[in-house]
Give the backbone structure.
Amino acid sequence: MPKRSRRGRRGMGSSRSRSIGRSRMCSTPGDLSPVFAPGGGDRSGSARGSTSSSRRGRPRGSPSPTTSRYWNGSCSSRRHALYLFRPGARAGSAPRLLRFAGRVPRCRARAEHGHLMTATRRVSARRKLREQGKAILTNPDMLHQGILPYHARWGRFFSNLRYVVVDEVHTYRGIFGSHVANVLRRLRRVARHYGSSRSSCALRPRCRNPQELAELLVHDDVAVVDEDGSPRGRSSSCSGTRAPTRRRRPTAATRWPPQRVHRRGADPGRAAEARRAVDRFHEGARGRGAHLSLRARAAGARVGRPGEFAEPVSRWISPRGAVAPSAASFRGRPPRGDLDERAGIGDRRRHARRFDPGWIPKHHREHVAAGGALGTKAGALPRGRGRV
Amino acid sequence: MKTPSINISLRHPAYFFGQPVESAVLDPENPYVLRVAALCAAYELPLSAQDEAMFGARAPAIASILEDEGQLKSLDGLRYWSSSDYPAGSVNLRTISDDTFTILDQTRDNAVLGTVDSISAPELVYPEAILFCTRATRYFVRELDLKQKIALRRAA
């Protein structure tokens, strides 16, 4: 099949976006753009991939626009869905996704049929979701060892399987990704055996080669949608590391993350030093025009600086001191009331993070996921000002 | 600045922010990966020529080898799983082989730090190798026991 040009795919995505409209797509604020052009090709089914920024303006654990669309359209008596999430990363988010779906009016009834299938589910629960489940959330390991080998018991589900959503596609790489690609081929084969024609959707491939990766993974022609129409401000990043410490005073005062000082119950002198280090970092960041995220301010509050966020955000602080890459810092606060009221959390424009070369790929992905364009103008903080 | 790499990265941020995100690489047609996939697939449903084409160009050859090994049986153009075992139960998606070496840390009372498959073990945990683990932690491999399939190491 001749591949479409990149412009052609984008064009299809845009026109489809206009035809569907936001009202049908969006269940959360800030999820406007990712609509997927239908993947063509002589291979059965169709696949889509999105490189949209993640969690922009959405509470953590809420479904992405694609997930919402698939979720809304999937849970019927004839169209079942399989949501594949990476073990560990999405294990905590999957139940939240189910709960969130229950808060969306259109999904309220359908969410009752959503089930989480993991290795920890009891036998009775597995039997129930085999008989009644219409949207199964599971991980590759469970699909590999617990579902596909027993496909005869899952005949009802496989015969109605319509959507396969693979989340966090960029995590499926190397040996694990190669195995998962073959697991998805086995899934496709079993689904075909039961007469279902499923459609695949790959989400958030934060990598350089999203189309190649998604095509290898789902074994289908993939149309990449890399336009992100979600509301966002200009994003930039500033990076800092700890100040050069004097050997005669290698105290924790200049260490990052400073909250560790507090966690250890260190003496007040060191806590004060840590507080000053945080202040210096913040001053230096603000001097560069950065608006620190909540988590950065929380880091200051944690070491003794009282603030409005001191108490509620203490659990948001990463043990590594990494600053929130996006609005995910609101994960501890579930959305209440009208979801559109929370659109303001997407207004955060800049973020700072501790720089650690061991986490460069992770920081890089977070930078892109937070909306930072590649090649964003950024600079190190002045040494004298913030000592970072 | 702690290390030269941090120094360079912070003084030249374009080096960090100007580069594209890393590529993700996978190879579903790796013979070792394909072998276990073919076994699991044959357990689920008999393998036909169409199925083998789905798994890639190497799949027919892999299936033939498995048939020669006696793990698959051919009947009427279909290849069947010939055992009563459950192949998926012994296949770990995170390793390329079921045959693994365990990595022990001698400085922490032989605590298990991880595993490495036997195919990669001679390349990664050979004696006197410097092994980089999470967050750039370096370890010095002292011994590779091929019989007990363990690698002993300590912090470098």
Observations:
- Chain B touches chain A through 47 residues (CB under 8 Å).
- The radius of gyration of chain B is 22 Å.
- Chain B has a mean pLDDT of 82.
